[in-house]
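A quick aside before the break. I want you to see a complete sequence-to-structure record at least once, exactly as it would be stored in a machine-readable document. Don't worry about memorizing anything.
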Amino acid sequence: MRQYAKHVQPFLLSSDYEWFKNALAVLNSEGLIPYVDIIPLHQPWAAKEQWKTWPVSLWQAHRIWSVARIIGGAPILSEVSGGFITIFSLCPFCHRRTIGLQHMVTTCPGTIDLRRNPPDPNVDPRILLKAALTYPGNEKDLIAQVILVSSAVARFATAFDLSTI
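That is the input. The structure line, written in tokens, reads:
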């Protein structure tokens, strides 16, 4: 274990850092998303959920929620590259231009039925998205957040005729 901690772990951490830095540079170079909008989502993630007696469908939804937390976007798969498409040019429901996970989960009229509370124009959507992607500490709120994020992502994937993880 000492050799792992001394050699392997530092390499993996620097590799992760480089990957995130390069992915963010691509997004910034294409002008798709400002740095300030994505940085609050890239937070260290540790699996805090214990194995529970959840149905398979909830674990699949949890996987979508977890990947959304890790990549800071919607885990919708590209048929061409096999990678994630996290930014879309047009919303299929409200026709807003340049949308991402924040629009899907917090402001889109096409997903309003998934949210517990109606949208409040005085609340910053970034705060709402961060709350939806932050581990809440209790199972009831976790399930609500998992269902909200995964259902919104799945609805958009279906509308784009794409698939999610």
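Two observations worth writing down. The chain has two domains: 1-31, 51-164. The two ends are 33 Å apart (CA to CA). We'll return to this after the break.
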